Every structure is written in structure tokens, then in C-alpha cells.
């Protein structure tokens, strides 16, 4: 039995689910999970269906045969098989998010394969190489930034990367690079967006006496830290938390939000809806 996932969105109208299920049943498929969301505000339907096929089938076969149905309903759709996505993880000096991703990857709980790690610093090379992963050092200065970003794109191509994960990578990507990686790059922001932007977010949070510390995983866009939000994690804190204690709590939130966002993306549970996302958990 081969398992596939169909994700789609289209203008809302009657008959969509019937058309999808009729197609799958007609092709000898068995639905094992189905979720949908009707966005009444924008008149759009979002759907995710996992199914198995008893006979031989491929993504190309299903795509070709489904195209006529999709045209009738103006669907934007995608069939996926169980081939794991390949990840390029970008880091700087902080290693907590990389460490968490490596643990989940080796435990088989990430839903993806980490292909390599790249960084603008050498600090995390030992962590990556201890996990048996290639480590690419790409120094970045204002003068070398165009060459560094081109090298990143070369790595994406050379290693057949499906998703770039910015795991506390402390460099702002150019608008051009963000556009080229649209929908294929996830960042973790060290606060519960929107709020506390810029340097020293935990010091800002401490100064304001916050009661929650959070982290936000979102898609990368040219608008800094304004991309569609995939997941957010918050932790309750109080007046007794020092800036260092807040940072400790925040690191846990960052690692958890990022790993969830990566897994959900790779399991095709995240569908873009303009500046928002639909997440089928």
C-alpha cells in the first residue's frame, strides 16, 4: 500500500469534497485522514486528505488524472508521497534549536531528513559533525552578502533542499533571496509576535514585566518578521524571573515552536492563506 497526501485550496462552492472523494474511490484509493476548513471570510476552501492506493501509483500519475477535476473547481493542489523533505538548517552561534532538531531527526520524529547545516560562524560545527552532517561555513559581511546568499542558493540546488530552516540564524536575508525561497523557508523569532522587535528581546520583556514569554515560527518574507505565522508557543513567567531565566524559558519555547512548524510543513499540514496559514494538526 502506497500512502499519499492531497492538499488543495479553491473558491468555496458545493461539490468539492464529493469530487475529491469520487476521484479517490474511482482510483481504488482508501482515505485514512481528511481535514478541511471553509474560510467564509474570503470564500475559500482548504483541504488535506491522506489516502492509500492498493495498486501501483505515483505522484505524477495522480496529478495527471486529477487535473481535469481540479480545473472544474479552479483548484490549486498538490499530491505528495511519503518521501521525506530534505532540510538545510541555518544557524549562527546559539545551538538550542539546532540541538532540538537534531534530536528529533535522529529519533525519527521530525518528519524530514536534515541534509546539512550552514552557518555564518564556526561555533556549531562540532554539533553538526557529531551528528554526521556536513557543515558549511558561509561568512557574511556587508561586502560579501550577495556572494554568501548565492552560495546558499547553490547549496539548495546541490543538495536538493526542500526547506530552509533558520534555526536562530542571525542574519537578515535580502528581499531577493526571500522571494526566491517563498514558502520554502521557516524562521524562528525569539518573541511572541508582534512585539519586542530588535535587539535584546528578553531584556525588553523584563523591563516591561511580562507574564508570558513566547516564540513565533513563521515563513520568511521580505517584510522582516512579518511572514505568515505557522506556530506560536508561550510560557507563563512572573516577577521572579531574571533576564537570564527569561532567556532560558524562551529558548525552550523557540525550540518547540520551530520543531512543530517544521514537522507540520513537511507533513503537508500547512497551507498558505494570503498573510495567514491554515494548519491541519
TrEMBL record:
It catalyses: (6R)-10-formyltetrahydrofolate + H2O = (6S)-5,6,7,8-tetrahydrofolate + formate + H(+). PANTHER family: FORMYLTETRAHYDROFOLATE DEFORMYLASE (PTHR42706), FORMYLTETRAHYDROFOLATE DEFORMYLASE 2, MITOCHONDRIAL (PTHR42706:SF1). It comes from the Bacteria. The keyword Phosphoprotein does not apply. Catalyzes the hydrolysis of 10-formyltetrahydrofolate (formyl-FH4) to formate and tetrahydrofolate (FH4). The keyword Hydrolase applies. It is an enzyme of class 3 (hydrolase). This is Formyltetrahydrofolate deformylase. Pathway: Purine metabolism; IMP biosynthesis via de novo pathway; formate from 10-formyl-5,6,7,8-tetrahydrofolate: step 1/1. Its EC number is 3.5.1.10. CDD domains: ACT_F4HF-DF, FMT_core_Formyl-FH4-Hydrolase_C. Keywords: Hydrolase, One-carbon metabolism, Purine biosynthesis. HAMAP family: PurU (MF_01927). The gene is purU. One of its GO terms (molecular function) is formyltetrahydrofolate deformylase activity. The active site is at residue 225.
Amino acid at each position: 500500500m502506497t500512502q499519499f497526501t492531497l492538499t488543495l485550496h479553491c473558491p468555496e462552492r458545493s461539490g468539492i469534497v464529493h469530487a475529491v472523494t469520487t476521484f479517490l474511490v474511482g482510483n481504488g484509493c482508501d482515505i485514512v485522514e481528511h481535514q478541511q476548513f471553509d474560510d467564509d471570510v474570503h470564500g475559500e476552501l482548504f483541504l488535506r486528505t491522506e489516502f492509500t492506493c492498493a495498486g501501483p501509483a505515483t505522484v505524477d500519475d495522480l496529478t495527471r488524472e486529477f487535473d481535469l477535476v481540479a480545473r472544474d473547481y479552479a483548484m490549486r493542489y498538490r499530491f505528495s508521497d511519503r518521501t521525506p523533505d530534505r532540510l538545510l538548517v541555518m544557524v549562527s552561534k546559539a545551538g538550542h534549536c539546532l540541538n532540538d532538531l537534531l534530536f528529533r531527526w535522529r529519533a525519527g520524529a521530525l518528519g524530514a531528513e536534515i541534509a546539512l547545516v550552514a552557518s555564518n560562524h564556526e561555533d556549531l560545527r562540532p554539533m553538526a559533525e557529531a551528528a554526521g552532517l556536513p557543515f558549511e561555513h558561509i561568512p557574511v559581511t556587508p561586502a560579501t552578502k550577495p556572494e554568501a546568499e548565492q552560495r546558499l542558493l547553490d547549496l539548495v540546488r546541490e543538495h536538493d533542499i526542500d526547506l530552509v530552516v533558520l534555526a536562530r540564524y542571525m542574519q537578515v536575508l535580502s528581499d531577493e533571496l526571500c522571494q526566491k525561497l517563498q514558502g520554502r523557508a521557516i524562521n524562528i523569532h525569539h518573541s511572541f509576535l508582534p512585539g519586542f522587535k530588535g535587539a535584546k528581546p528578553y531584556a525588553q520583556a523584563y523591563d516591561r514585566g511580562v507574564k508570558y514569554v513566547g516564540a513565533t515560527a513563521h515563513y520568511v518574507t521580505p517584510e522582516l518578521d512579518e511572514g505568515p505565522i505557522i506556530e506560536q508557543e508561550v510560557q507563563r513567567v512572573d516577577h521572579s524571573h531574571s533576564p537570564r531565566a527569561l532567556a532560558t524559558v524562551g529558548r525552550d519555547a523557540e525550540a518547540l515552536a520551530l520543531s512543530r512548524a517544521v514537522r507540520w510543513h513537511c507533513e503537508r499540514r500547512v497551507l498558505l492563506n494570503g498573510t495567514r496559514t491554515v494548519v491541519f494538526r
